[in-house]
């Protein structure tokens, strides 16, 4: 059995929504201290909907695939749904990740949560 699913390989080779959003109103950055990988998430939120989302990930293939899939899952979604996104849901949408790579999907969940925190801070 292949170590990585077709979906992981597809999102690793052709990541969706890579880049930055100049006028983002929600930006989150997280890192994994052990592997040193970093993920940055930019969102443009309007009327409590994620109108646009982009990411920059300096990390392993699973982290890139996880960020790509996470952006696909939250684009166009209301913030109430975005806040509920778990790393397990990201990994599931990728048809699974090897156990020792699950922490890479955690970065995606954390980057989104960090961006949401930043959004609410900006609103305060
Ligand atoms: Fe660091 Fe995957 S090995 S996020």
Uncertain regions spanning at least 5 consecutive residues: none
From the 3D coordinates, which CATH architecture would you assign? Alpha-Beta Complex
DSSP E strands, number = 3
| Element-by-element helix/strand order | HEEEHHHH
Global outline: globular
Q: What small molecules does this complex bind?
A: FE2/S2 (inorganic) cluster
Class computed from helices, strands and strand pairing:
alpha+beta
Give the terminus-to-terminus CA distance. Answer: 50 Å
In round numbers, the mean pLDDT is 97
What share of the residues does DSSP label as strand, in percent?
Answer: 15-25%
The CATH class assignment is Alpha Beta
Write down the Rg.
Answer: 14 Å
The tally of domains stands at 1
* Percent in helix: 40-55%
Largest sheet: 3 strands, antiparallel
CATH overall fold name: Sufe protein. Chain: A
- Please give the order of strands in the largest beta sheet: 1-2-3
Notes on the structure:
The chain is α+β, with helices and mostly antiparallel strands. The chain has one domain (6-123): Sufe protein. Chain: A. Helices cover 44% and strands 20% of the residues. The chain is built from five helices and three strands. It has helices at residues 6-13, 61-74, 79-82, 87-93, 102-123, and strands at 26-31, 38-46, 49-58. The protein has a three-stranded antiparallel β-sheet with strand order 1-2-3. A hairpin with a 2-residue loop joins strand 2 and strand 3. The radius of gyration is 14 Å and the shape is globular. The model has no long low-confidence stretch (mean pLDDT 97). Bound molecules: FE2/S2 (inorganic) cluster. FE2/S2 (inorganic) cluster binds at residues 32, 35, 37, 59-60, 62-63, 104, 107.
């Amino acid at each position: 059995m292949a170590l990585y699913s077709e979906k992981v390989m597809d999102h690793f080779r052709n990541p969706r929504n890579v880049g930055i959003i100049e006028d983002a109103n929600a930006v989150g950055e997280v890192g994994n201290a052990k592997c040193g990988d970093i993920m940055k998430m930019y969102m443009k939120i309007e009327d409590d909907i994620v109108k646009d989302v982009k990411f920059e990930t300096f990390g392993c293939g699973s982290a890139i695939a996880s960020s790509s899939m996470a952006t696909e899952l939250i684009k166009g979604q209301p913030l109430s749904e975005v806040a509920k996104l778990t790393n397990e849901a990201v990994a599931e949408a990728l048809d699974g990740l090897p156990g020792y790579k699950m922490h890479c999907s955690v970065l995606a969940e954390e980057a989104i949560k960090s961006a949401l925190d930043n959004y609410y801070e900006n609103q305060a």
